[in-house]
Amino acid sequence: MLRACNSRVEPTPVAAPRLLAHSPELAADLGFDEDFMQGEDFARVFGGNALLEGMDPYATCYGGHQFGHWAGQLGDGRAINLGELIDAKGAHQVLQLKGAGPTPYSRGADGRAVLRSSVREFLCSEAMFHLGVPTTRALSLMGTGDEVLRDMFYDGRSAMEPGAIVCRVAPSFLRFGNFQILTQRRDEETLKQLVGFTLKHLFPELGHSEPDRDGALALLYEVARRTAVTVMGWMRVGFVHGVMNTDNMSVLGLTIDYGPYGWIDDYNPDWTPNTTDAQRRRYRFGEQPQIALWNLARFAESLLPLVGEAAPLEEALRCYVDVAEAERRAMWVGKLGLKAYREGADAPLIEGLLKLLTAAETDMTIFFRELAGFDVGDAASGLAAVRPALYAGEPDPGWMPWLEAYAARLTEDGLDPSERAARMNAANPRFVLRNYLAQVAIDRAEAGDLGGVEELLDTMRRPYDEQPGREHLAERRPEWARHKAGCSMLSCSS
Ligand code: AMP
Ligand code: MG
Fold first, then answer.
1. pLDDT for res 153
2. What is the pLDDT of residue 488?
3. Rounded mean pLDDT of 150-172?
4. If you measure from the C-alpha of residue 96 to the centroid of ligand 1, how many angstroms do you get, rounded to a whole number?
């Protein structure tokens, strides 16, 4: 029996660490000024070539259910926690390098990450934060000066790619799998310690510091609640995680592990960006709330030794269902600009809308954003939201009756049009990190031009604002990107 949650391991030095991009507001929150960020010391430490005094790096041990099956021990195979600091708000933040070299959990792999996947993680972490969805953050994107061998399409054509390291930041990177592995090993003692640690340090507001039955149940309720908020946030902004394995589920309810994720262009609940999941589509957009519940059930099972019986754990899982439903309603109130959700009456309105959005390829982000300009006195004005969102053709005749029903519904609410538009524009972003935009920025970055990364990072700082001059970043996916790798589909190779 190992009776351990972590292994001490230091990053493996790289050839030529160089700061490629960073998040200035996160750096400021952490107390890092621009001089430090741009300096030699930063490059050395965040490229993995040196440690700051007091750093005692480690990788954590976790297991997980991957694609519905228990996969045994996984662990941080390429992520190394450097240590913790206290940010400007007094909160503890862990600094973690992803791609910093092998750990005891690398299972024969190289512990490295390539530039393309690191750009995607860096940009999407920050985009998600500014969209208001809980997430791990990204402080820096470092080039390593080393090359990494990857078979991007899993077709035997391996190639060298530039390596990179992202510094991720979160109060904790604990995953469901950190708990699961202990229960699977029947290591109740370490499980108790981990639950006690989690309650004391990550959830002090729950008022439970003992890993007893009540503490374990309080933890499950809170994890369930947070998970519901985050997943419904994904549904609101059109994000598909792509690999919702239990080792990629944060106990803090943060979006974590940006791999083959994607953003919905045309509204399609069946879409998944992950080529590994293309057949079964377990992690498709519309299924995410269900999958989160399945994952929470696995997390609940891992707490069984502390609770002793299943019934109260099952009861706690209902918290997820209740919070997800409340969040779903709040989401629709925002997306449609309603005063409040109406039991009964609003369900058919929403169902009718989703049918229309699914029937013809209609851009989710553009449609909802444009809908804020709807004139209640002129239902046909809604077609001005549909037209720019359509990938082909003219609006279906079914739109007019729906728009009339929507106008009637809004008239009952009687909200001032500017008030309604403000509510909608706070729920419906103008800008999301469209798959093809990230890929264009990656192509430029691989050619040595970081302008695209900077432009997207800056745009995604204010995703709900109109940003004159940046209309080109809010357009429909162009035809050339429909089937291009990186734009419409991604492998797990990273
Ligand atoms: P993921 O699908 O990215 O969440 O990764 C699943 C598991 O594989 C985790 O334990 C990762 O740490 C590990 N892993 C992925 N890529 C590498 C790599 N290049 N080197 C070592 N471990 C890796
Ligand atoms: Mg992972």
1. 85
2. 83
3. 95
4. 14
Ligand minimally distant from the alpha carbon of residue 494: 1
Tell me if 111 CB under 6 Å of ligand 1. Answer: yes
Q: Tell me the CA–centroid distance for residue 110 and ligand 1, in Å.
A: 9
Where along the chain do its domains lie? Answer: 6-170, 338-414
CA of residue 254 to ligand 2 center, whole Å: 13
Instruction: Verify whether ligand 1 is closer than 6 Å to residue 110 (CB atom).
Output: yes
Residue 1 has pLDDT above 60, yes or no: no
Taking a C-beta distance cutoff of 8 angstroms, is the pair 247, 228 a contact?
A: no
pLDDT tens per residue, range 294-305: 999 999 999 999
Q: Ligand 1 pocket test: which of 120, 247, 276 has the largest number of ligand atoms within 8 Å of its C-beta? A: 247
Q: Using CA atoms, how far apart are residues 282 and 271, in angstroms rounded to an integer?
A: 10
Task: Please tell me the residue having the least CA distance from ligand 1 atom 12.
Answer: 77
Q: Residue 79: which H helix or E strand, with range? A: strand 79-86
Measured between alpha carbons, how far is 247 from 232 in angstroms, rounded to an integer?
A: 20
The tokens describing 43, both together, are 């490059």
Closest CA to 437 of 429, 445, 427: 445
Q: Quick one: pLDDT band at residue 31, thresholds 50, 70, 90?
A: very high
CA distance 105 to 107: 6
pLDDT at 485 over 90: no
From CA 369, how far away is CA 61, in angstroms rounded?
Answer: 43
Identity of residue 162: P
Ligand 1: nearest atom to the Cα of 111: 20
Is 248 touching ligand 1 by the criterion CB < 6 Å?
yes
Per cent of the chain over pLDDT 90 is 95
- Dist CA 22 CA 37 (whole Å): 8
Rounded CA separation 270/282 (Å): 9
Mean pLDDT of 386-405: 98
Residue 272 C-alpha to ligand 1 middle, in angstroms? Answer: 20
Please give the positions annotated as active site.
247
- pLDDT at residue 331, as a whole number: 98
Where do we find the tokens 């750093």?
Answer: 55
**DSSP for 289-357?**
HHHHHHHHHHHHHHTHHHH-SSHHHHHHHHHHHHHHHHHHHHHHHHHHT-SS--TTTHHHHHHHHHHHH
